[in-house]
Automatic annotation (TrEMBL):
It comes from Pseudoponticoccus marisrubri. InterPro entries: DUF3429. The keyword Transmembrane helix applies. Keywords: Membrane, Transmembrane, Transmembrane helix. The keyword Glycoprotein does not apply. This is DUF3429 domain-containing protein. It comes from the Bacteria. The chain crosses the membrane at residues 46-65, 77-95, 101-119, 131-149.
């Protein structure tokens, strides 16, 4: 694997911030109270994590779709089919309450990592892609895990 471009790393890590914020507001009551008063209930605790997680899985479907455009024939068709799975997963599995939805998102991000690996293996993703996705997935799963366990 090659070095992750600085801009991709910074933007990727910035994309983890809502997950981390949700986890922090679960761990510190004062921060949660400040967030409730300042931002509203949708932007604290598991609620920000779950809503944002569904958005990110959908976004990642678009990224994978873009990778699929680099393929041809049957591989392209398979790539397009695989690329819609994260968005559909988020849509169909995140409605059962915060714990259930959090576990579903964790499974969704782990499954997304498997798709990332496949697109990387097919050389449709940049060489550094898997290194970035491993890091970001670990951080996201950690933050969502706090949301499920607390």
């Amino acid at each position: 694997m090659h070095q992750i471009p600085r801009s991709a790393l910074i933007l990727g890590l910035a994309g983890v911030l809502p997950f981390a914020w949700g986890a922090l507001t679960l761990l510190w009551d004062g921060l949660a109270q400040w967030g409730l008063q300042t931002l509203g209930p949708r932007f604290v605790g598991p609620y920000v994590q779950l809503f944002y997680g569904a958005v990110i899985l959908s976004f990642m479907s678009g990224v994978l779709w873009g990778f699929a455009t680099r393929a041809e024939g049957d591989r392209a068709a398979l790539g397009y089919g695989l690329s819609v799975i994260p968005a559909l997963w988020a849509f169909f599995t995140t409605g059962g309450g915060p714990d259930s939805a959090g576990l579903s998102l964790i499974a969704g991000f782990v499954g997304l990592l498997a798709l990332d690996w496949q697109f990387w293996r097919w050389r449709l993703a940049p060489r550094w892609w898997l290194a970035l996705r491993l890091l970001l997935t670990a951080l996201v799963v950690l933050c969502l895990g706090i949301g499920v366990l607390i």
